[in-house]
Amino acid sequence: MLGIRVRTEDGRLRERLTAGELGALVRRIGGAGDRFVVVERLSEVPDVYAQVWHEEGGAYSLEHRDGDPERHFTTTVDTPGPVAEALTGWARSAEGWDAGVVWERLTFPQEVTDGGGAEETEQTEQTEDAKHAQAPPLTRAFAELEAAGITARENFACCRACGLAEIGGAGAPDARGFVFLTSEPYRDASLLYGGFDGSAQTTAAIGREVVAGLERWGLDVVWDGEPGSAITVRTPAANGAPGGA
Length: 245
What we know:
There is one protein chain. It is built from 8 helices and 12 strands. By secondary structure, it is an alpha+beta fold. The chain is elongated, with a radius of gyration of 19 Å.
């Protein structure tokens, strides 16, 4: 048995899994509502965890964090086998568990920059209306969606798995659904969305409303209409959303 606690997108918690059971979870994920596995040690040390995100047809996004944000790393793996091995090694604190893949430190937009104090001071002197008028299209679209009863957040949480776990408490209690963009760096802005009842029908309806709201502000949106597919906003730098290399 591994001394771990495991959380999946369906909200289920499991403790003390075998290596085989953990591997089976990794191989299972990918479908709508079942896209991530978060692994924590039972010692419950704050901000120490490993996790994997996978959507059917895509690669596996593997991360681990060891306390401080500077110790948060990410990598991409094509197949589930190495992911399961890495998570099992992490759970056992095995020497060299993180070898064999190239890790990059996960950085966030808010970590950049010195010299922004003057700009921040100037912004605080603006009225809320003026700031909204000067905001990027994505920010203004999100404000409209929020007013319409959809919890909408930019730069929300450190990753998709954490965002999905936290979004329910981020907005109004009577919100019909949600859409958010995490702090993870992407070439395009990949938005996650859904309904709080967990149904595919509600998720699709929220998706259509989100796409319509984004397009009203002239954003270039790609979505195939399927509730299990992400909504992508192209050219995030031009749209005012964070992007990455």
